[in-house]
Design a protein that fits this description.
alpha/beta; Rossmann fold; Arc Repressor Mutant, subunit A; 5-stranded parallel β-sheet; 5 strands
Length: 224
């Protein structure tokens, strides 16, 4: 973690469960005269604990964390630190998640495959009061708002809640109900209720079909 006496540098909190990636992003940010990494966390627990002590202006959040999805963490931030800005930096395809991230409270979405200068551009735009999305996503959202035809997304993206989508991805990774309950800090009964809802919404008749569907989703999203 870096510190500085320069009050002009904006404070950035990094939340990602990959230490090497955090290190690389931290080095990139700390080389900037106007930015400073004030804290790093690998999960929700660590990120929430840093809100008061690190006093970040902006959080850079991955969607896949050890103890909670990034979407749920962004919602937590809105309650615990309403003034905190959030940028999602993720390997997950923006076409699946960008709109969900904005609805959760994020001010921007950028994929990890983008060049480093794009990450800095996204951070600065959000800090200056703007929103950062790729041209592709902006065009799709404008088409949707205007009623013009746009590239269709898998039906599940539209009909599943954030929690149900999170559960679907964990099922596709081979997690048992007990492991899912532990990961999401919910009861097994709640997990089974979510499973039943998934089968109903996706028109699946068995747990085996649900598993196969979840595995395909993981492959499509490149998160398996």
């Amino acid at each position: 973690m870096a510190e500085t006496t320069n009050p002009g540098r904006k404070r950035i909190l990094l939340v990602d469960d990959h230490p090497l990636l955090r290190e690389g992003i931290a080095q990139l940010i700390n080389r900037q005269p106007d930015l400073l990494v004030c804290g790093e966390a690998e999960d929700r627990t660590g990120a929430v604990a840093l809100l008061d002590t690190a006093r970040p202006d902006l959080a850079v959040v991955d969607l896949s964390l050890k103890d909670q999805s990034g979407l749920e963490l962004i919602k937590d931030f809105k309650v615990r630190a309403p003034g905190l800005l959030t940028l999602v930096l993720s390997m997950h395809d923006e076409s699946f998640y960008a709109e969900r991230a904005l609805r959760a409270g994020a001010r921007g979405y950028i994929m990890k495959r983008e060049a480093s200068h794009k990450v800095l551009e996204a951070i600065r735009r959000i800090l200056s009061g703007g929103v950062y999305l790729s041209d592709k996503i902006v065009a799709g959202m404008l088409d949707k708002a205007s009623g013009r035809p746009h590239a269709s997304k898998p039906a599940a993206l539209e009909i599943l809640s954030d929690r149900e989508l999170e559960l679907l991805l964990l099922i596709g990774k081979g997690y048992s109900s007990q492991l899912i309950a532990n990961q999401l800090h919910i009861s097994i009964k709640t997990v089974e209720t979510h499973r039943a809802n998934l089968k109903y919404k996706l028109k699946l008749t068995s747990s085996s079909e649900l598993l196969q569907h979840a595995i395909r989703w993981n492959r499509e999203l490149d998160v398996a």
